[in-house]
Design a protein that fits this description.
CATH topology of the largest domain: FAD/NAD(P)-binding domain
CATH architecture of the largest domain: 3-Layer(bba) Sandwich
Distance between the termini: 62 Å
Structural class: alpha+beta
Oligomer: single chain
Number of domains: 2
Helix content: 25-40%
Largest sheet: 8 strands, mixed
Shape: globular
């Protein structure tokens, strides 16, 4: 059985200390985890250089974030690592829920055809980081990745931000237009600028264990309420690559973190779960349920993403997925601001939209936590009644909450709609992420999302497509249309999902979200929607 081998990355004396030519970059990114690395790649794809600082010199130890959702995989496709992740990861979309020894019900998250990505894959965070680091090497002139560079302080001025960094060769300062804080739950940047979370800490602790073993468990999510092998608590099992299984065991608030992580205390718990099966412990950790966030994510020249901005309880896979979606929302906007194509006020929309998403994740995570760990007798009575009914009563299954799986946040209603939005009968409204579908460009089959994103695009239907100066047009039509990327709707799913008759059009943002839709598009209407979505309308008002 194979295990991941952590190999240290080489430390290089920074040019600020070696006397070399400084690496010129308008952005400093603190943290080389999945969020920081993804941000560096996304910015590089927009031609924006960054310096990435990390205090360590290896990828993360332990599986940590493992469940990567369909929308996040679509983002990783755009960043260039999605295929590697799918090839290595364990694909799953089904799960089973148990109460004690009784299976209450099973579920399937996605049976809809015509999507490249599954509902979820399980893949250890260290693999994701390794793939992203490899991808960074494709942007050698735009990404300076510095290991063993520890941030010790942050100061802002009116026009820039200065970062103090310590290395094995001493300290130095680096200045940039913007700093992206991607340094996690214990963010040094957050403390340096005097910020703290608001929200709720739940008085409960969970043990995480990565167990290496030969087993024939299916690629499903298994969750137990009050299992007989772990009386009175809850448990979760996920399959990962390399014969690694992720186990979460509820311990209660009184559990001693130092004692509970000792192998002599962990092993008996695993044996109670699996019996006499041979296994090896690969990694053990403890975490506390909490649902908290910063009041704002944008603080002048310092911008927070991922766990440095918001924390949620892990059930439902909302932490890592939410952080990657922060990157997806921010980087095209930041690139436009840095390049002078948009006013700095566009960054306020990142703050508004991703705070909204964080609140949605926190709400779902809080509800799951309260169902899993009832706070009083009334909550426990309700939970037990729902579990008793769910095996035979389908309506009760909708009330069970062991962590509602992560879904992309909808921005519907957040000032994204167009003035020509009547007559569409589809859930793909302004603010939603674009659904994928099988298409063909000439004789080459492919996926719709490969042709959207990275820049503003018009998605148009029919042989007389909408056009606008400076915008590329993706035309859905059976025959080629001059001046457009023409795609054939292979299975009819583009028309079905977007509900668009010939002549209709969608304005798609660089992050593959619908900015506006038009039944009868005109250059004026498209221009108005583009100005609103790109921040130009804010500039005009100011």
């Amino acid at each position: 059985m194979s295990r991941y081998r952590h190999k240290p990355f080489p430390y290089t004396t920074p040019p600020e200390l070696s006397g070399g030519k400084p690496f010129e970059a308008p952005v400093v990114i603190v943290g080389a985890g999945p969020i920081g690395l993804s941000a560096a790649i996304d910015l590089a794809q927009h031609g924006v250089a960054s310096v990435v600082l990390d205090e360590n010199n290896v990828v993360t130890v332990g599986s940590r974030a493992i469940c990567w959702a369909k929308r996040t995989l679509e983002i990783f496709d755009r960043l260039g690592v999605g295929e590697r992740m799918r090839e290595k990861g364990v694909t799953w979309q089904a799960g089973r829920l148990f109460h004690r020894d009784r299976e209450v019900y099973h579920f399937d998250l996605m049976t809809e055809p015509g999507h490249r990505n599954p509902a979820f894959i399980n893949l250890q965070q260290y693999y994701v980081e390794a793939y992203l680091i490899d991808r960074c090497a494709d942007f050698a002139g735009l990404i300076d990745l510095r290991w063993n560079n520890r941030v010790t302080g942050v100061e802002q001025s009116r026009d820039s931000v200065r970062v103090r960094v310590e290395t094995p060769d001493g300290g130095y300062d680096i200045e940039a237009d913007y700093l992206l804080a991607c340094d996690g739950a214990r963010s040094t940047v957050r403390s340096s600028v005097g910020l703290d979370f608001a929200g709720e800490i739940f008085w409960d602790r969970f043990l995480i264990a990565d167990v290496e073993m030969e087993a024939d468990f299916p690629s499903e999510r298994w969750f137990w309420f009050e299992p007989t092998f772990h009386s009175g608590q809850s448990a979760l099992l996920h399959k990962q690559p390399d014969n690694i299984y992720r186990i979460d065991l509820q311990l209660g608030w009184d559990a001693d973190p130092g004692e509970e992580k000792k192998p002599e205390n962990v092993v008996p718990r695993i044996q109670a779960m699996f019996g006499d099966r041979d296994f090896k412990l690969e990694w053990v950790s403890l975490y506390t349920f909490q649902c908290r966030r910063l009041e704002r994510f944008v603080h002048d020249h310092v911008i927070f993403l991922g766990d440095s901005a918001h924390l949620v309880s892990p059930f439902g896979a909302r932490g890592g997925n939410g952080g990657i979606q922060d990157v997806d929302n921010l980087c095209w906007k930041l690139a436009a601001v840095i390049d002078g194509r948009a006013p700095a006020a566009l960054l306020d929309s990142y703050d508004e939209e991703r705070c909204h998403a964080a609140d949605e994740n926190i709400l779902n995570s809080t509800r799951a936590t309260r169902f899993m760990t009832p706070d009083d007798d009334a909550e426990r009575l309700f939970r037990d009644a729902v579990l008793a009914l769910a095996e035979d009563m389908p309506f009760a299954r909708q009330l069970i909450n062991s962590g509602r799986p992560s879904k992309p946040c909808s921005l519907a209603g957040m000032a994204l709609q167009s003035d020509d939005d009547e007559g569409f009968d589809t859930p793909v409204v302004p603010g939603t992420a674009c659904p994928d579908a099988v298409v063909a460009e000439g004789s080459r089959p492919g996926w719709l999302l490969d042709h959207l994103g990275g820049a503003f695009k018009l998605l148009s239907f029919g042989d007389d497509p909408a056009r606008h100066d400076g915008l590329g047009t993706v035309c859905i039509n059976d025959l080629p249309v001059d001046g457009c990327t023409t795609l054939r709707d292979v299975d009819g799913l583009v028309a079905e999902r977007y509900g668009a008759d010939p002549g209709a059009a969608y304005l798609i943002r660089p992050d593959q979200h619908v900015a506006a839709r038009f039944r009868n598009p005109t250059p004026q209407a498209i221009g108005k929607a583009l100005a609103r979505a790109s921040g130009k309308a804010m500039e005009q008002r100011s």
